[in-house]
Amino acid sequence: MMKGVRIVVVLLVLAGLGWYGWLKQQGKPAEDVYNGWVEGEEYRVVAETAGKVKEVLVKEGELVKAGQVVAKLDDEAARLQLALAQANRAAAEARAGDVKAGSRPQQIAQAQAQVRALQASLQGALENLKRLQSQRQDVEELVQTGGATADQLEAAKAAEASAQAAVNSLKAQIDAAREQVRLLQAGATSYSLSAQDAQVEAARQQEALAQLQVNKARVVAPVRGVVQNILLKVGELANPGSTLLNLVDQDRLYVNIFVPQSQLDRVQLGRKAIVEAENGKLKGEGKIVYISPQGEFTPKNIQTREERATQVFKVKVEITSGGSSGFKPGQAVEVRLK
């Protein structure tokens, strides 16, 4: 009988030592293992401009790269605006180039020829004025002798005045033409150069704005992630801010675990963890990045220690490596705190 008791005691001791050794090998007690599921930061991929959905280039569940075009909106009007802005910019640059290059010899020669032509016209106008002045004097003498009427004298004076006005006009035109020659020979002023530069810059800004509108018709993924759901279809109208699809960031996956209040002293921000799925076939490292300050499933009045022990606190474990090795949002995992 005593021999049997001794055997049982030995077996119990060996079992206890084996259990202790297993725990020591694991490094942490069994209650440091928690279950949860993989989640990810979700992004709303929105339209930045209005337009009909022309193409949807991805499918739900598809993994996309950051910057990848996921949808296209109708951009016909935006492209027409861009073409107009490009033409205006080219014209502004051409005008500025002409001003900076200075006047061509042909332009100066044409202006000088204009001066000479006006001078020739003035010479003819002066001769005509001299003739009409002589006629007016003759009519005045005839009026005194009765050989001409007062009306004839008024007509002669009017003709002389008209000729004088023509002479004055030609002199003013000659002065303006000479000034034009001087400006052409002197070249552009700093003011005119600055004005042309300002016009070119304004045209370029308008072109850049038009190009931006064209670019906005191409909707791109902000991060590498998995397409969760597509909300707008081809042909539907998107307004600025409309959500086209939802995307889960594949590089910022995490697991929410729920730790009983009695075990809260074992979790600290920054504590490392092992995240496993598929019976250990898929592993990744993680760390605690958030501990909820409030318990969940808490009764209104907590009276006993047992009731307080039923409280659980949400703890967020970010997967720091292995996220690109197969973990997917919604996947059940086991989290083992180190």
UniProtKB/TrEMBL annotation:
Domain of life where this protein originates: Bacteria
A Gene Ontology term for the protein's cellular component: plasma membrane
Coiled-coil residue windows: 70-215
Keyword Coiled coil attached: yes
Annotated keywords: Coiled coil
UniProt keyword Zinc present: no
Name of the featured protein: HlyD family secretion protein
Organism: Carboxydocella sporoproducens DSM 16521
Lineage, top ranks: Bacteria, Bacillati, Bacillota, Clostridia, Eubacteriales
